[in-house]
Amino acid sequence: METREYDVVVIGGGPAGENAAQYAVEGVEVDGRAMSSAIIERELLGGECSYWACMPSKALLRPIAVADLTGDLDGVSTAHVAPKALLERRDYWVSHYDDAGQDTWADGAGIAVVRGAGRLVGERTIRVTSSTGDVEVVARRAVVIATGSEPVVPPMYADALPWGSRDATGVVEVPDRLVVVGGGVVACEAAIWMSALGSDVTLVVRDQRLLGRTEPFAGEAVLAGLRERGITVHLGTEVSDVRRESPEATGIGKVHGGTVTLSTTAGEIVADELLLSIGRTPRLDDLGLDSVGLTADDVKAGRLPEWLHAIGDASGGPPLTHWGKHQARVIGARIAAAAAGEVAWEPDREAPVPQVVFSDPEVASVGMTEAEARDAGHDVVVSRVPTSSAAGTGLLRDTVVGDSQIVVDASTHLLLGATFVGVEAGELVHAATVAIVGDVPVHVLRHAVASYPTASELWLRLLEELPPSFRTPPPA
Ligand SMILES: Cc1cc2nc3c(=O)[nH]c(=O)nc-3n(C[C@H](O)[C@H](O)[C@H](O)COP(=O)(O)OP(=O)(O)OC[C@H]3O[C@@H](n4cnc5c(N)ncnc54)[C@H](O)[C@@H]3O)c2cc1C
Ligand SMILES: NC(=O)c1ccc[n+]([C@@H]2O[C@H](COP(=O)([O-])OP(=O)(O)OC[C@H]3O[C@@H](n4cnc5c(N)ncnc54)[C@H](O)[C@@H]3O)[C@@H](O)[C@H]2O)c1
Questions:
Q1: Among 119, 141, 218, 409, which is 20 to 30 Å from 422 by CA?
Q2: 118 in a labelled binding site
Q3: How far apart, in whole angstroms, are the C-alpha atoms of residue 72 and residue 394?
């Protein structure tokens, strides 16, 4: 069998893996020789994010948001979604499911791409299996696991061949009636584009609220937004049985057989397709972890030998592209520094994780919710204002919905968390991320002047709503 050797070998070419392969070796020379890296990829280079997750979902949601906006702005004619053109836009943004562009990028960055499924067979050694035969790939210095995650499908659902997120983002046949199980991020985003494409959408949510990890007021605003679109949402509803007439694996985005019937605590729900979106789990099976004496739990807990690293969804951390890419930069710098006999500089604590949900209204958050901050023992002060309450936000639409909130530590005046709901939420949250990472107390943040009339002036409103004692440093 052919053996190839590189300094760094990354299993999985999603956004996390690609960044790790680049950062671990870029500009690094050891013993007068440039460091080398390889990515092992069994599907499309670019990963879930590029073809079946972030890119297609956002490509579908943006025109819908723009059409909605024109319906809510005097002085402009209302635009309407054109389903065929919307799917063509999706196809453009996923490069028609062709990864030639990513191949060109890897080539330009000097990263080797080994096609096939990678499996550890010993320390720093990976067997890559493909239709053209097996190759052994050896890492001189480090192996990075970046194999992503896959949707959770409990046995009760498996025989019905439900849609997963790949089917929703890759939709080809629009079912007349779509039932979505789950009330998280995928459900709240996919319900919007499936409804805009013409499906009659029903959400079945086990919890009493949507987007359970965010502030309750955010989930309430998204619930109202979905219902306003004519989407039915059953909260606090358990599914006890799933039946489907003639299930058939017809392919991604096509209807997978006959009528689906769900028995639920809200009654029987009949639909033409079922989208199951109840979370994802790290993809660590079939990776040969046992060959090096490890289990999936070791990977998720970070109990790894010094030559092995895990990043992105596979690491069990927050399953978000930007977080995986951040981990890749940190791990990449560690590998590069170690090769040079140095230790990479890192801040003394982990960065807060921001997330933007591209629902309607949009929800963006970073750091702790109020409840999480109190549970962690902080004495907190909270400021919440309507997102419409700055001139800059008010001007953006005729109807600005949602609230925005900051959570502040009462003794240090440091920001612990922030949540924005509504227009420009995804852009407004970055200032909060910067303030948290930079330890900027709110009495200093007041002096970061936002231009009038921009959405960022909402920060002024949030800071003004804090008690006056938060305008000067806390007593020593
Ligand atoms: C519908 C949807 C929308 C999303 N939208 C957003 C968003 O807007 N913003 C955001 O931040 N996040 C979003 N996410 C999450 C985001 O997609 C993931 O966090 C991200 O893709 C994780 O990147 P990764 O590199 O860790 O893994 P992946 O992107 O899953 O890539 C892993 C790669 O590893 C390959 N692989 C796996 N096993 C092997 C093996 N044994 N050998 C070789 N190759 C292997 C796979 O083929 C894949 O290409 C979304 C997720 C979904 C489902
Ligand atoms: N804009 C974005 O950043 C974005 C968009 C889509 C997905 N994602 C990522 O993808 C991940 C997966 O998304 P998701 O929506 O599948 O998961 P999620 O964790 O966001 O939501 C899962 C939902 O399913 C429910 N649930 C869990 N187990 C259940 C069960 N057995 N029966 C019924 N309901 C159950 C939960 O209560 C929750 O409502 C997210 O964690 C997110 O990080 C991010």
A1: 409
A2: yes
A3: 12
Look up the CATH number of the domain holding residue 412: 3.30.390.30
Cut 0.95: pTM above it: yes
Handedness of CA 63, 68, 74, 77 (dihedral sign): positive
Using CA atoms, how far apart are residues 195 and 229, in angstroms rounded to an integer? 8
106/125 Cα distance (integer angstroms): 22
Expressed in angstroms and rounded, the spacing between residue 222 Cα and the centre of ligand 2 is 15
Report yes or no: 229 and 316 within 8 Å, Cβ to Cβ. Answer: no
Nearest to 409 by CA among 447, 437, 370, 465: 370
Kindly give the parts of the chain with pLDDT less than 70. Answer: none
Pairing assessment for the beta strands 33-34 and 29-30 based on DSSP bridges? antiparallel
Give 414's DSSP letter: B
Is 387 known to sit in a ligand binding site?
A: no
Using DSSP's 3-state secondary structure scheme, residue 101 falls into helix
Q: Are 9 and 76 in contact (CB under 8 A)?
A: no
**Is the same domain home to 380 and 399?**
yes
Give the pLDDT confidence score for residue 341 in this predicted structure. Answer: 92
Residue whose CA is at the smallest distance from ligand 2 atom 27: 278
Containing domain of residue 417, as a range? 361-467
**Same-domain pairing of 197 and 289:** no
The CATH number for 11's domain is 3.50.50.60
Residue whose CB lies within 8 A of the most ligand 2 atoms, among 62, 163, 206, for a mutation test: 206
For residue 277, how far is its CA from the centre of ligand 1 (angstroms)? 15
